[in-house]
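dumping these here so i dont lose them again. two proteins, back to back, each one seq then structure tokens. dont judge the mess
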Amino acid sequence: MKFVESVLKKSEHPAYSWIVFILTVCESIFLFVPPEVFMTPPIIANRRRAIPITIAAALGSLVGGTIAYLIGYMLFDSIGVWLVQNFATMEKFQIAQSMFVKHGLMIIVLAAFTPVPYKLMAICAGFMGFPALLFIGISGIFRTARFATVAALLWRFQDAANTIVKKYFWWITVAAIICAGFGIVLMMLL
């Protein structure tokens, strides 16, 4: 599979950390592709990349989460409404608001560590005026823990992961898209 080999080879380039950073920033604001999709190729291509890639994903998530928070806090009537209307509904956002009032801290933990769309919770946190430093701190801890867990598993099982990715690349890609879709559906059901 030449495409997979090409992706793995290109992912070893030092600039790929920046790609992970930028894509994770985008994922934290508007993109619905889980960051693990960007993290996997460089780590299974070269296990020494696990720490730099985890750091890039964690920092990208913090920057993107902060931007999403600020959109909710300062620009909700323009950009925030557009993002909510394009990625959910205002009714679902209002449900998220009521959940935030009851379970604010737990909602951030849930969104940071699971496939629940983090971006919507970040916008909601800003809109609700959730303490910014607490939001950034909790997001940083749990998003980094999520990425570090994935990186550690890929590092530990690099050979098996490499074989699996080469053999089931397209199935894994479809599964990642389904997981993102599941996160969206779960968010809509909340």
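---- next one ----
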Amino acid sequence: MTEPEQAFDPKMLEALVCPQCHGVLRFDAETNELVSKAAHLAYPIRGGIPVLLIDEARTLDKD
């Protein structure tokens, strides 16, 4: 039996910045990621906790 996925608290965004560019992060509920448009990176959220490691981030398409 697994524990239910803990939800990310969007209030945390007030204190978090992108570790790559120190810019604003946006919560994407669809992908459960924190997105940095400036760095073109998406950081995963696991168990309600953002994983703000550049090596763990997914690169976004530059449109």
